[in-house]
TrEMBL record:
It is an enzyme of class 6 (ligase). Keywords: ATP-binding, Cell shape, Cell wall biogenesis/degradation, Cytoplasm, Ligase, Magnesium, Manganese, Metal-binding, Nucleotide-binding, Peptidoglycan synthesis. Pathway: Cell wall biogenesis; peptidoglycan biosynthesis. SUPFAM superfamilies: Glutathione synthetase ATP-binding domain-like, PreATP-grasp domain. Gene3D superfamilies: 3.40.50.20, ATP-grasp fold, A domain (3.30.1490.20), ATP-grasp fold, B domain (3.30.470.20). HAMAP family: Dala_Dala_lig (MF_00047). It is found in: Cytoplasm. It catalyses: 2 D-alanine + ATP = D-alanyl-D-alanine + ADP + phosphate + H(+). Mg(2+) 1 binds at D256, E268. The lineage of its organism: Bacteria, Candidatus Aerophobota. This is D-alanine--D-alanine ligase. It comes from Aerophobetes bacterium. The keyword Nucleotide-binding applies. PANTHER family: D-ALANINE--D-ALANINE LIGASE, D-ALANINE--D-ALANINE LIGASE B. The keyword Oxidoreductase does not apply.
């Protein structure tokens, strides 16, 4: 009998469209890998009942953003006893909250840009360790939505950037030191132990790797493996794995960094990175000869291993 997999996709976050594309690709890849697959859009209020009725062996979560990547759906699946792919409730919540995850990374002596958390409707002044240029971003959002780069200390521009950030997180925003260097990303999979995939360098046509650059053809150049020294590669991969393990992640994730003068500065960790066939994690897997169907098969098998413990 074929193993039955449910792919959860869509949802109600601002990253819905990306999630739908990830879900479609994952479903196709799992079918190619030999699984019996069906999908559910969590924007449909009846998806809980449908899931209970179909009784899948494993749920592959292809949701991005709030309610899908933040521990919410993971908690519900644990309550009803359905195995699922990806990180658990706590790791998902921590990774989604950039302020919390940055504090954990810092406690592990990982390098990261200086930052300051901002609460909506409360006054603030720049911390002494921050100066322009700055990156302004929502504390809990993905796909680089609501992210701005400010080159100078124009107060009006800063207020506008914060308002953009608060459109995607109604409570908290982050002011972050802008570090000019090589933008890189490291995919990680459990195989069965966590290991890194080839490093990718991201070269956006504009200064910032924002939503448009990420999802519009021709707005970015990707080099894999990244043209960095062997010594830098080792340090980057070690930092990525340490970040992954410090949050308690599992199955797969992607760590975004800036590499400057041999130091890897961690920007954030994505517990459910984009999973279209052209997304960064599948791109890294492909670079080492791991096809998309084999990649999603590894992720599912990693989830299965937990059910046997």
């Amino acid at each position: 009998m074929q193993t039955k997999i449910c792919v959860l996709k869509g949802g109600i976050s601002p990253e819905r469209e990306v999630s739908l594309k990830s879900g479609e690709a994952v479903e196709e890849g799992l079918k190619e890998a030999g699984y019996a697959v069906f999908n559910l859009d969590t924007a449909n209020g009846n998806f809980f009942r449908q899931l209970a009725k179909e009784k899948p062996d494993v749920v592959f979560i292809a949701l991005h953003g709030s309610y899908g990547e933040d521990g919410t759906i993971q908690g519900w699946l644990e309550l009803v006893g359905i195995p699922y792919t990806g990180s658990g409730v706590l790791a998902s919540a921590l990774a989604m909250d950039k302020i919390s995850s940055k504090r954990i990374f810092s406690s592990q002596n990982l390098s990261l840009p200086h930052f300051q958390g901002i609460t909506r409707n409360e006054g603030y002044s720049l911390n002494s360790h921050l100066s322009f240029p700055l990156v302004v971003k929502p504390a809990r959002s993905g796909s680089t939505l609501g992210v701005s780069l400010l080159r100078d200390g124009n107060e009006l521009e800063l207020e506008r950037a914060l308002e953009r950030a608060f459109q995607y997180d109604r409570s908290f925003a982050i002011l972050e030191e802008y570090i000019e260097g090589k933008e890189i990303t490291v995919g990680i999979i459990d195989d069965p132990e966590p290991r890194s995939l080839p490093i990718i360098q991201i070269i956006p046509k504009n200064e910032l790797f924002n939503y448009q650059a990420k999802y519009t053809k021709g707005f970015c150049e990707y080099i894999v493996p990244a043209p960095i020294s062997q010594e830098e590669s080792v340090r980057v991969k070690e930092a990525a794995l340490k970040a992954y393990e410090s949050l308690g992640c599992r199955d797969f994730a992607r760590v975004d960094m800036i590499l400057k003068e041999g130091v890897a500065h961690i920007l954030e960790l994505n517990t459910i990175p984009g999973m279209t066939k052209k997304s960064l994690l599948p791109m890294a897997a492909h670079a080492e000869g791991l096809s998309f169907p084999k990649l999603v098969d590894k992720i599912v098998k990693s989830a299965f291993r937990r059910t046997k413990k």
